[in-house]
Amino acid sequence: MAAKRKRMAGTGPTEKTNPLSRRIDLASSLNIAEIINREDQKIALAVRSRLKEIARAIDLAYEKIYRGGRFFYVGAGTSGRLGVLDAAECPPTFGVSPSVIQGIIAGGKRALWRSAEGAEDDSRAGANALRQAGADANDVVCGISASGKTPFVRGALTEAKRRKAGRILIACHPEPELGPLADVVINPVVGPEVIAGSTRMKAGTATKMVLNMISTGVMIRLGKVYGNLMVDVNPASKKLKNRSERIIAAVLHCSEGRARNLLRLSRNQTKVAIIMGAKGCSVQEAQRLFQEKRGLLRKIL
Description:
Blueprint: H1 2-9, H2 29-40, H3 43-48, H4 51-66, E1 71-75, H5 77-94, E2 101-105, H6 123-133, E3 140-144, H7 151-162, E4 166-170, E5 184-186, H8 202-221, H9 238-252, H10 256-265, H11 270-279, H12 283-292, H13 297-300
Parallel strand pairs: 1-2, 1-3, 3-4, 4-5
């Protein structure tokens, strides 16, 4: 047992054993929850220590997307799934095209719901994924690797560098091996997991927080948010249509009935409906203003 612990101590922080949870298998359900919660409280502080790097990542991604480029998340296992999740949530929330923010996971789509652990070891597959996506100097690639050394992510970042794309690395290691391949390294160090090596826990939570900050920050800078309202929401469901109506009513200080009518007249375009209501203009004129100011409500209103 002592020899095993010594070997574990020589690995990266995501693989080390946590002394605070060594006897968790003997704990009650309440104690298990307390141990996990106590460790989770360290995550936000770890992320906070990397806010400057997160801001640089937001700037880099914004500049690329503003000029017509794309943003790719690349990862394996939990990291890959988190990237795909964040990419998938941006279109309905911010009205951005699915092609603008894309998620690439080792093992392909089937790895989203069934583990494909061996896929992370194929660096050539990572490079090939970038080639197939046609990534170039107009784009930015965000590699996600809790250990900071995943071969699939290495291959993707190496190919991205060759293609002169912008590069971001998110890792939970103080000195990630893949760091030299990135323009921006975001590495919140959350320490050993409650269950040794289970990076779906603290490392996964830290990664989710960072991804939320980057994508939301980029969308805010692109004008997808007015105040703190998601004014580019795509009202593709009853819930989102109701949300859109409430947003229109809040911005225009009008009744939800008027907001509902404006949304109908705008053909379910939330920003266009707001412009119509604020300017008292037709849908055609609102669309013209929208295009002229690149959808930035602050400039239009």
